[in-house]
Amino acid sequence: MPARVAIAGVFALALTAAGATHARAATLRSTALITSGTVRLSDLFADLEPGQDRPLGPGPAPGASIQVGGAQLIAIADEYGVDWLDQSPSAMATITRASRILDQAYFADLIRQNLPDLGNGPVSIDLRDFHPMMVAPDDPKPVVLSDVKWDQRSGWFSATAYRGQPTGDITRDSFMLTGVIHAARRLLVYAHALPAGSVISASDVQLDESYAGHIGSRAFTNEADIDGMTVTRGVVAGSAVLDQDLHRTVLMHKGDPAVITFAAPGVHLTATGRALEDGGAGQYVHILNLSSSMIVTGRVVSASEIEVEAGSNPVPSDSNTLRHLTTSSRDASRADLSLR
């Protein structure tokens, strides 16, 4: 009986010792996120012995990953004396370097810091052929700009960007940064989205005192200039009101009958006439006075009324004048007449 107890005690001690050995065994990390540029033994194995951790080699670039296969893991464990449970040639560990993204807003702010002549007013900085950059999250100065050039008249700028912490890859450590800087302007913008074919009224636009977006053509600043015009394409709220997106809405068509009105202090005259060209609201067109057979120039008030202002000089309606007006009207229609 005592012998059996002794054997059982020895067996229990052996189990306890084995359990303690396995308790101290390392386990593989299948994935690891590192913040430094060096891979350590503890990035591959957890539960290492005290003082066993050590650097293994360079890590991936910020935002990139490397994979360590089973055969290499076994070799590393053997070299550094790591008691690794469940060793297998099919094992795999993936190590990813933490990163942050430098986007367009970051580089636009960097350009502004390097161009003190821009002042403190609002500007729009549009980058061309831009690609975001991955950098270490704790890098205090990830990019340095050099050779910053800016043409104030055209707005074009260029600069060379260098990584603060080079990777050793010349194609990634520096690149050209180019774009256009637009100074803020006072102009009309759309108050809300409008579909193509919409006729604009004063409630559809508002004045932006510091618009800094890109302007590809003439922009409007006066509501009266665009009232009654038609949008040729869909527009979004906040975008600039540009002449390339508008055309004059025709109220009066060539050949339409119209009432000619003339008003001056103490005088109000009316006559019947016939429009000699198309015209939109507020647009000046030629009209034939049927009573006097004279041609006058007046402003389109509505689809049936032309207002002739004081100082307007009528011209005879001879065949040459009518032919000239007809040709001019046809050419103007092709060019989509704007307010004169």
From TrEMBL:
Family matches, as Gene3D superfamilies: 2.30.30.760, Antifreeze-like/N-acetylneuraminic acid synthase C-terminal domain (3.90.1210.10)
Region of interest (Disordered), ranges: 310-340
Transmembrane domains' residue ranges: none
Biased composition (Basic and acidic residues): 331-340
UniProtKB keywords: Cell projection, Cilium, Flagellum, Periplasm, Signal
Alphabetical GO biological process terms: bacterial-type flagellum assembly
GO cellular component: periplasmic space
Localisation per UniProt entry: Periplasm
Signal sequence residues: 1-25
Keyword check for Signal: yes
Biased composition (Polar residues): 314-330
SAF domain mapped to chain residues: 185-247
Alphabetized PANTHER family for the sequence: FLAGELLA BASAL BODY P-RING FORMATION PROTEIN FLGA
NCBIfam families listed in its UniProt record: flgA_cterm
Official protein name in the record: Flagellar basal body P-ring formation protein FlgA
Native source species: Gluconacetobacter asukensis
Underlying gene: flgA
